[in-house]
Design brief:
Order of helices and strands: EHEHHHEHHEHEH
Radius of gyration: 15 Å
Structural class: alpha/beta
Helix content: 40-55%
Strand order of the largest sheet: 2-3-1-4-5
Number of helices: 8
Distance between the termini: 12 Å
């Protein structure tokens, strides 16, 4: 069987981490979202919101971490690896805030390709803000639009996961792989 590196994407608060946690509980190899780790590390150094204060630095750190996740996923003994957010997310967020980024960001999107991409739609009923998620729901919807545009630009077919129970969302994803 060919290695499947599958990315779950979607704007903030769409349920990605919940699904990743459930996939882990079912024994699947999964890589978590790393932006919270980057944000918390910066907060420990006195930078409240690194993405807002130094978006390029934040994005460079994310890009490096997501490339590492991709490379590590290739080395996993499991044939299926799920990743919470992918490399093109970095470009989508930079486009969302209107900042420029180096060509290396584009090259990374072209060089590291996921097998399948599942997108979770904005879902106001489950959306929650917290200390690392500063966006409101309207901003989350705008980010979603940038994610869709960016992934399509790099040739991905986005498989939309319906709004449903965690169990049914998991079954939907597993059925598609």
């Amino acid at each position: 069987m060919q290695k499947e590196i599958i990315v779950l994407l979607g704007g903030p608060g769409t349920g990605k981490s919940t699904l990743i946690n459930e996939l882990v509980a079912r024994g699947f190899c999964c890589y978590p979202e790393i932006s919270r780790q980057v944000t918390m590390k910066a907060q420990e150094q006195g930078i409240e919101q690194l993405f807002l204060e130094q978006p390029l630095l934040f994005s460079e750190m994310l890009l490096e971490g997501r490339i590492d996740q991709y490379k590590n996923a290739l080395e996993e003994p499991d044939n299926v690896v799920f990743i919470d957010r992918g490399i093109p997310d970095v470009v989508a967020y930079m486009d969302y805030i209107g900042d420029e980024y180096p060509e290396s960001f584009v090259k990374a999107c072209e060089d590291y390709k996921y097998s399948k991409t599942f997108i979770l739609p904005p879902w106001e009923e489950i959306y929650q803000s917290d200390s690392e998620r500063y966006e409101n729901f309207d901003q989350a919807v705008k980010i979603q639009e940038h994610l869709v545009e960016t992934y399509k630009k790099y040739g991905y077919e986005l498989i939309e996961v319906p709004k449903d129970t965690v169990e049914n969302r998991i079954l939907y994803i597993l059925d598609k792989i």
